[in-house]
Amino acid sequence: MSYDRLTHPLVREDGVLRRASWDEALDAAARGFLRNIARHGPDSFAMLSCARSTNEMNYVGQKFTRVVVGTNNVDSCNRTCHAPSVAGLSAVFGSGGGTSSYQEVEDTDVIIMWGSAARNAHPIFFHHVLKAIHKGARMFAVDPRRTGTAQWADRWLGLNVGTDIPLAHAIAREIIHERLHNETFIRRATTGFEEFAEQVEPWTLSVAEQVTGVPKEAIRELAHAYARADRAQLCWTLGITEHHNATDNVRALINLALLTGHVGRYGSGLSPLRGQNNVQGGGDMGAIPNRLPGFQDILDPEIRQRFENAWQVPIQPRYGLNLTQMLEAMAEGELTTCYLIGENPVQSEADSLACVKRLSMLDHLVVQDIFLTKTAQMADVVLPASAAWCESEGTFTNSERRVQRVRKALDPPGEARDDIWIMCEIARRMGHDWHYDGAQEVWDELRRLSPAHTGMTYRRLEEHQGIQWPCPSEDAIEPPYLHGRLWKEDPGPRAPFAVLEHSPPVDLLDEEYPFRLTTGRRLDSYNTGVQSSGFASPLRRGETIELCPEDAAQLGLARGEEVRISSRRGTVVAPVHIDPALRPGLVFMTMHFPDEVDTNALTIEATCPIAGTAEFKAAAVRIEKVS
Amino acid sequence: MIPLQPPRRLIDVEVDGEAVRVPEGSTVLDACRTAGKDIPTLCYGDTLTPKNACRVCVVEVEGSRTLAPACSRKAEAGMVVGTDTARARHSRKVVLELLASSTDLSTTPMAKEWMADYGADPARFGEEAATVAQPPKVDNDLYVRDYGKCILCYKCVDACGEQWQNSFAISVAGRGFDATISTEFDVALTDSACVYCGNCVEVCPTGALSFKTEFDMRAEGTWDESEQTTTTTICSYCGVGCNLTLHVQDNKIVKVTSPHDNPVTHGNLCIKGRFGYGYV
Fold first, then answer.
1. Which among A388, A409, A525 is the nearest to B248, CB-wise?
2. Which of A9, A53, B79, B135 is packed most tightly, with the most Cβ within 10 A?
């Protein structure tokens, strides 16, 4: 189905949403927030900020949360995808961004695409990979599925779902045993190598082959190619991060870069490919519970002081709730009001039924969106917003940390208004007389507070077709890669190796639920399908359950036949699609068509304790004929 | 470790009697443009390796037996180039006449101006002149292939193939005058390897490939480029950060392109960036 844009505000009256004027809706939104804050304190409020909207909107959103309400409970859908990458990278290097640039991928010798269907999910990034392949770079694809990416690889390492750490450990052990690790780099720039080496010691190639299902020759080849390369890129996507131990997975990959010195140099680096247009920027702007704008730690008193001076309010000296904790706090009744901007958690969160129940327990829910999504249908107040990328001015930040200008090409439909205008109007009704004359004024305020963005005036962003952070000065452009300091005589804070245990997927396979379900995206569709349903793609074929020819034969299933798919949490019905790129025991679904098939009724809400990301990539399911 | 480009020597070239200085490795076309000379091009693409198919950019190089295609011939120190000599003009005139007599150039930007400038008269080959006229292929909702307008410049094949998209959905089939751009076994696009990125449409110089929106609006007479605005913004889907140029008419997006000099896209997009705007 395709959605119609929201064109006027709605408020709930006698249980139903009815059309309202802007004044009425804004008053109702502000009144509800004030009521809850007065009754239960500022921590009863939470904001989910929008990873699709501009940096400027996210800056104002987190400022609204911290200044107008006075809590740090602000997060975004970052949580469902790359929060572990940010957590892992910042724990090791002090900064949560990918360390390399797209151009460097073209100039590298070895590329490892780990848990990344970039050929379909990030097609234009993959153009850079293809350039490198045509220039002679070797590419390894590590993925349970033989994806479009794997079809371009020199070697495909088809590992069992959730065995990334054993595979990384075996690669590390092989590198150490063959003495291919970079001893100088390890000694000068890292800590914890001895413990790490000890930890990976049991993971011989044979043990790893048994656990991961990858032939030991292939593991050995990848280890040697990566370690011997002059330059190497390690790229990953949600195959690494949508697991219950996702931050450990990320750390396992970072360990490999530390072991070989493949970080902090041109052409060598670590690249998490971000899944939403501005999920990088949302975090950079402080729309996360533990960081202030510029990814500055909220626990640092000096940094807090700087923001308190600028904003003239005290900032709570502790981390707020992340999305996962917010959902728990709703269940506990501690969180009673929520301001959701451009998020659709009812359909995007794992274990979607539980999410609906929790949102319905709120006293006051305000949703600001461009569509009347399933989540918006539950709201007390619905505010129609403009589509950030083409109906407003501002900036987005991409996967290579490049801040680029977003420009207004269209007028929003009906009475829909700009996100920043809406937030300022609510702030004003809550006693803060905010006014911004356009996005640039917001950006200049941010530039004064975030050293990483200080040098990025709108004029320079235009001139350079975007600038990568950090950019502390208006007179210079920094190198395209991060952490060059690691190669200095005195590298500053050392990068720690992580000592990690293998932890298999939480949802165990057994006789009752014998199939491993993994989820992902297709080329022509996107997330919950709200956006991508609006065009007539000749490639679209609706939701299916994809399985390999062997499993289909064993279950006696034909293409197109409807089957019942059940997990320990829910059941859905979908037609069969047979895909020889899958292996026996592994089945695949997308989350693009939740109105027809709610895949997330099957997925498990087992979350990463550090970053809070759910294990979308590994559920145990049973498949039965319907008739 | 940064691969510094070795410093490029500057070389001196003479274009129409004017001295110009260009970096070594530049083409004659670069040198001509540096000198402010406008030379027609069709098969040349700023994001593609020259194919030398159309010969409309030929210039006279002193000491060279034949005319040289400006788009691919490298400039050399001391080269003396004539862009507007009688021989070059005559050659361009004939090339335009041959193309225009066999192919519908009605949507080729600048074609009309060039024909007037070079005095090209395609009608001189008579009514019987062979043409590639054929009905447009409309087999999907995203783009149209109107091969009656195709000059066989190969740009779409290169964009779909190893220079950018690497989908290899189209190639040249047939020989001589009967050569056409075709999917495998000439199947409909929907049965081919096409992934609808539209990167072929982006480089097509004649409008043989066009977006369905543009094709339909032209058919109903509502396509009006003078009423269109273009605004470059960033795609709203994944986190790669592709630059989109939105062509807007009557507050509606009618076409999406990408800047060819952009470091993220080099003018390329995927199906979502190119066509996924329907929801706004």
1. A409
2. A53
Q: Are residues A61 and A91 in the same domain?
A: no
Contacts of A13 (CB under 8 A, 6+ apart): none
Residue A496's SS3 state is: strand
Structure token pair of residue B72: 């691919």
Query: Do A338 and A252 share a structural domain?
Result: no
Provide, as residue numbers in chain B, all residues whose Cβ is less than 8 Å from the Cβ of A530: 279
Q: Using CA coordinates, name the residue in chain A closest to B242.
A: A124
Residue contact B239–A279, C-beta within 8 A: yes
Q: Tell whether A31 and A154 lie within a shared domain.
A: no
Best residue in A104, A127, A185, A399 for a mutation probing chain B (most B CBs within 10 Å) = A127
A417 and A527 belong to one structural domain: no
Which two structure tokens, joined as six digits, stand for A218? 């292939």
Instruction: State the CATH class of domain B1-131.
Output: alpha beta
- pLDDT tens for chain B, 280 residues long, are 445 567 788 999 999 999 999 999 999 999 999 999 989 999 999 999 999 999 999 999 999 999 999 999 999 999 999 999 999 999 999 999 999 999 999 999 999 999 999 999 999 999 899 999 999 999 999 999 999 999 999 999 999 999 999 999 999 999 999 999 999 999 999 999 999 999 999 999 999 999 999 999 999 999 999 999 999 999 988 889 999 999 999 999 999 999 999 999 999 999 999 998 877 7
B198 chain-A contacts, CB cut-off 8 A: none
Interface test with B, best of A103, A124, A373, A540 (most B CBs within 10 A): A124
Among B142, B234, B270, beta carbon nearest to A396: B234
Q: What is the total count of domains within chain A?
A: 3
- Our CA-based measurement puts residue B80 at a distance from the nearest CA of chain A, in whole angstroms, of 35
Whether the CB of B246 is below 8 Å from some CB of chain A: the reply is yes
CATH of the domain at A415: 3.40.50.740
CB-based contact B280 A273, cutoff 8 Å: no
State whether A317 and A367 are in the same domain. Answer: yes
Q: What is the CATH number of the domain that holds A136?
A: 3.40.228.10
Inter-chain touch B275–A537, beta carbons under 8 Å:
yes
Which residues is A19 bridged to in the sheet?
Answer: A10
CATH code, domain carrying A591? 2.40.40.20
For residue A302, give how far its alpha carbon lies from the nearest alpha carbon of chain B (Å).
32
Of A273, A297, A320, the one marking the end of a domain is A273
Contacting residues of B for A465, CB less than 8 Å apart: 243, 259, 261-263
- The structure tokens listed for A596 are 């027809």
C-alpha B127 chain-centroid distance = 28
Delimit the domains of chain B by residue range.
1-131, 143-275
The parent domain of residue A529 ranges over 515-625
**Is this prediction's pTM over 0.90?**
yes
Candidates B3, B239, B280; nearest CB to A410: B280
- Give the whole-angstrom CA distance, residue B248 versus residue B233: 13
B251/A411 Cβ within 8 A = yes
Architecture of the domain spanning B143-275: 2-Layer Sandwich (3.30)
Instruction: Give the span between the Cα atoms of A243 and A502, in whole angstroms.
Output: 12
Q: Tell whether A503 is covered by a domain.
A: no
Which residues are CB-neighbours of A379 under 8 A, at least 6 positions away? A10, A12, A17, A340, A365, A366, A367
Length of chain A: 627
The Cα–Cα gap between A268 and A577 comes to: 39
Are A304 and A356 in the same domain?
yes
**Residue B234 with chain A: CB contacts under 8 Å:** 277, 389, 396, 398, 404-406
Which of residues A238, A273, A308 is at a domain's end? Answer: A273
Spatial separation of the C-alpha atoms in residues A6 and A412, rounded to whole Å: 10
> Would you say B279 and A533 are in contact if contact means Cβ atoms under 8 Å apart?
yes
**A374 is written with which tokens?**
């399933």
A549 and A427 within one domain: no
List the end-to-end C-alpha distance of chain B, in Å, as a whole number: 45
